[in-house]
Amino acid sequence: MFKNRAVPLFLLISVHLVLPLGLILWFWLGQSPSQFRWLVTTVFMATFVLTIYFIGFWHYISVYLRYLWVVLLIVAGIVSYMGVRELPFFVQLNPLEWVRVGFDIAFSLAFIYLIITAIGAYFYPVKPIKLAFPFRNGVYSVNWGGNGASSRLMNYHYTGSMHTRAGVNRPMIYAVDIEKLNILGSSARGILPTKLEKYVIYHQDILAPCDGSVVEVVDGLPNETPFSGHYPYNVGNHVVILKGSYQVLLGHMQSGSIKVKAGDTVKMGDVIGQVGNSGMTDAPHTHVHAMQATGKNIWVEEGIPIYFNGRNPVKGTLFFEK
To answer: How much is the pTM?
Structure first.
């Protein structure tokens, strides 16, 4: 969570646009003195692009941009290799060139670690439960999701300092945050707008992801201004649905939009409320997590991984819904 819009805006533009474009152009047009130097640079470039591919916040700019950088990297690699294929594998390097090689190797190793942990977020120690996706009509992106014990950069809910300090991270270890995308692959009109109405998912109907009974409803909390720095610590207006041995929480709803009350029975696909921006949230989205139902407080239950429509909702996953 950010105290103002300037910091995430700077990071978004730098990490998702300026750095990839600059580095790929440098790789494309540069001339390596040997195949060894080209290989080191290639590993650095590949690990950097794969790292931001996995952990980037592409939905704020365009989720399709990350595929473009991968394609351009491949093209740049082919073009640059054509320029070094006749060169010797290794030539003597001066001290400055060895510093550059060391820099590239050190960062490549760091990126490889991040990639391995990001891939680990796709795997779970227990069998996921199967839920229906809680939205229809559009393209949706998972902006946080997967095994939070493996990678904080894929899913911060489990290791985030606010959650761990409050002791509520256990049920959120596999939590999922969902946003809707426009035709350009962005979650809003503009980059990080502060007006709620500019977010595509705002006011979208939220559907019950399973049959069950409603065991908890919180309503009446106001929307927060996006990136205002005002983050009441909770999931805002929310509904908890009990089904057998597990229960599902859907949060950050619009005040006054919730159509169910505790004790109601719901069917999969029923409209239960609308997307808002209540609680601890930067921008409109829906938070979903599943947990055991042992009769304890919902914030100390063990989290359960989720599959939506048979698919694993890890960060960056797209859902195309009719």
So the answer is: 0.94
Q: Kindly write down the DSSP assignment for every residue of 55-124, as one continuous string.
A: H--GGGT-TTHHHHHHHHHHHHHHHHHHHHTTS-S-----HHHHHHHHHHHHHHHHHHHHHHHHHHTT--
Q: Between β-strands 265-266 and 306-308, what pairing exists: parallel, antiparallel or unpaired?
A: unpaired
- H-state helical runs in the chain: 6-13, 19-29, 35-55, 65-84, 95-120, 161-166
Tokens of 40: 């080191």
Query: Please, what are the domains in the chain?
Result: 6-120 (no CATH), 129-321 (2.70.70.10)
242 to 173, 214, 289: CA distances (angstroms): 19, 6, 12
Q: What is the pLDDT of residues 10-62, one digit of tens each?
A: 999 999 999 999 999 999 998 899 999 999 999 999 999 999 999 999 999 99
